[in-house]
Write a structure and sequence with these properties.
The chain is an all-alpha fold. It folds into 4 domains: 121 residues, Alpha Horseshoe (Serine Threonine Protein Phosphatase 5, Tetratricopeptide repeat); 80 residues, no CATH class; 124 residues, Serine Threonine Protein Phosphatase 5, Tetratricopeptide repeat; 103 residues, Alpha Horseshoe (Serine Threonine Protein Phosphatase 5, Tetratricopeptide repeat), CATH 1.25.40. The protein is 76% helix and 0% strand. The chain contains 24 helices and no strands. Helix 16 packs antiparallel against helix 17. The longest helix is centred in the N-terminal third of the chain and has 28 residues. The two termini are 32 Å apart.
Length: 492
């Protein structure tokens, strides 16, 4: 094979990699985490050490509740550069959701030291500190012992691997658990409906003939069952640290009081019941359980529909939120027609109640359904109605970009450029480098189609500068290729 053929093959490989990572990013934003993982995984076969790709996949794993895998990918993203702030944040998040609040706090602090302007690190520090206080009390009342592998605290640049430290910590916890028998009553209350599943799995382990068997994938049933039990134990410990059992007991009593009332009546604290229900529905959807999210939302809607507006004055607003939840779950399940119907009902109720935020939400979701089904004109129609309702700079940047992208798909290049410029201006206002890249590329693509080659090259060069500052190799390669092609169009 000639050098020219090798260059072409290399460029093709880079183009495929960029497409796969961009697809993964888009699927993540849509909440299709399993499909996003597939795209990132395929991309990593082409470029095994891409740190941005590892972070993207880690975020998906975390959304699906697979914290160990999320931590492993976050570690991989930091293999070559221990100061990569996105990897640091992702590692801290994974540690936090594993219940390792102290270690999460360390990495939130490290990230904040490197990038003090990023708000997520500050919020991470706050929530980790609160979780630690919930689990062990106020830090001032606790005397820390210098014990185990804490060498990573000695020097900023010479730390031990946190996974090693976690293993030491888990070993200590396991020894403590052996010394102090678990309180089954507390475990039962923490796990709720999952407690019966735990007991069922424990009974399965006692069946010696069964546990010797294997699944169709070759896994030992004993390992599978034990893995499930370990996960439930981890959840129990995490929930107990996140919220003390005394508070859960109070909530349980409140729920019993609600259940003892006639079905047509609203509970004594409808706001608390609804807030908890909506949080549960959203948590199921975020973790990839669209079917469970849909089921819970439909059940809550039946309850709310039985209430009178006298009992719950904001009944229409609540029903609108539930229609939105059902619509989002249906999008994840691929039933776009039904999803559209629920989001349209959400919009109708929002208009009746004159709720700008709810109207903005519904218009956003309706546009999303149309865009995903390739009906770009309809997506534009609803997204343009949303523009006066937008408040935050980031939302404005995203919305203008998506409208511009739809116009680009329709080959309406003047409109695409117009919204690309607006998206770029909004991104400049909030100094968001990632959206500055996206918006600059959109403007450049539109100008390339319009024959404005000099301006096109300028915007590609600006996008390239931001991509290099972000150390986003995938974006750098894709933009460089587009820039080279655009330069060929310049008059000689």
């Amino acid at each position: 094979m000639s050098d020219t053929d090798n260059d072409k093959e290399g460029q093709k490989s880079k183009g495929v990699f960029s497409t796969l990572t961009a697809k993964g990013d888009w699927l993540y934003l849509k909440g299709e985490y399993k499909k996003a993982i597939e795209s990132y995984t395929t991309a990593l076969t082409l470029r095994r050490d891409d740190k941005t790709c590892f972070v993207g996949r880690s975020k998906c794993y975390l959304k699906m509740g697979q914290c160990e895998k999320a931590l492993k990918d976050a570690e991989s993203s930091l293999k070559e550069d221990r100061t990569f702030f996105e990897g640091l944040y992702q590692k801290a998040e994974a540690l936090y959701y594993m219940g390792e609040f102290e270690f999460a706090l360390v990495f939130y602090h490290r990230g904040q030291k490197l990038r003090p302007q990023i708000q997520e690190f500050r919020l991470g520090i706050q929530k980790a500190q609160e979780a630690i206080e919930n689990s062990v009390g106020n830090p001032s009342s606790v005397k820390l012992k210098i014990k185990g592998d804490l060498s990573f605290l000695q020097k900023e640049e010479e730390r031990a691997q946190p996974i090693t430290a976690i293993q030491h910590l888990k070993a200590e916890k396991k020894q403590q658990a052996q010394k102090t028998p678990k309180n089954e009553k507390i475990t039962k209350k923490l796990l709720g409906e999952f407690y019966s599943d735990k007991k069922y799995l424990e009974n399965l382990l006692k069946d010696e003939d069964l546990v010797k068997g294997k699944t169709k994938y070759g896994e030992r049933l004993q390992d599978v069952i034990q893995g499930c039990l370990t996960y439930l134990d981890t959840c129990t410990e995490f929930w107990n640290q996140e919220k003390p059992i005394c508070e859960r007991e109070r909530e349980h009593k409140l729920m019993q009081q609600k259940c003892s009332k006639p079905h047509h009546s609203a509970p004594s604290e409808p706001a608390h019941f609804l807030l908890k229900s909506l949080e549960d529905i959203d948590a199921e959807l975020t973790s990839g359980n669209a079917e469970d999210s849909l089921k819970k939302a439909e059940e809550v809607m039946k309850i709310v529909q039985r209430w009178s507006e006298k009992e719950v004055p904001d009944k229409k607003e609540v029903l609108g939120s539930l229609h939105s939840c059902i619509g989002n779950a249906l999008i994840d399940l691929g039933d776009m027609d039904k999803a559209l119907g629920h989001h349209q009902k959400d919009l109708e109720l929002a208009k009746q109640c004159k709720l700008p935020d709810a109207m903005s939400r519904a218009l956003d979701n309706i546009g999303r359904v149309y865009a995903q089904t390739g009906q770009f004109s309809q997506a534009i129609e609803f997204w343009e109605k949303k523009i006066p309702l937008v408040r935050g700079g980031l939302e404005k940047t995203w919305l203008f970009h998506e409208i511009g992208w739809c116009y680009l798909e329709l080959s309406r290049h003047e409109e695409a450029r117009y919204y690309g410029v607006r998206s770029l201006a909004a991104a400049d206002e909030i100094t968001d480098e990632k959206w500055q890249i996206n918006a600059s590329v959109l403007v450049a693509q539109s100008e390339l189609k319009l024959g404005k080659f000099e301006s096109c090259v300028s915007h590609f060069e600006r996008a390239l500068t931001h991509a290099r500052l972000q150390e986003d190799d995938a974006a750098v390669n894709a933009i460089q290729k587009a820039l080279d092609e655009a330069k060929q169009q310049l008059p000689q």
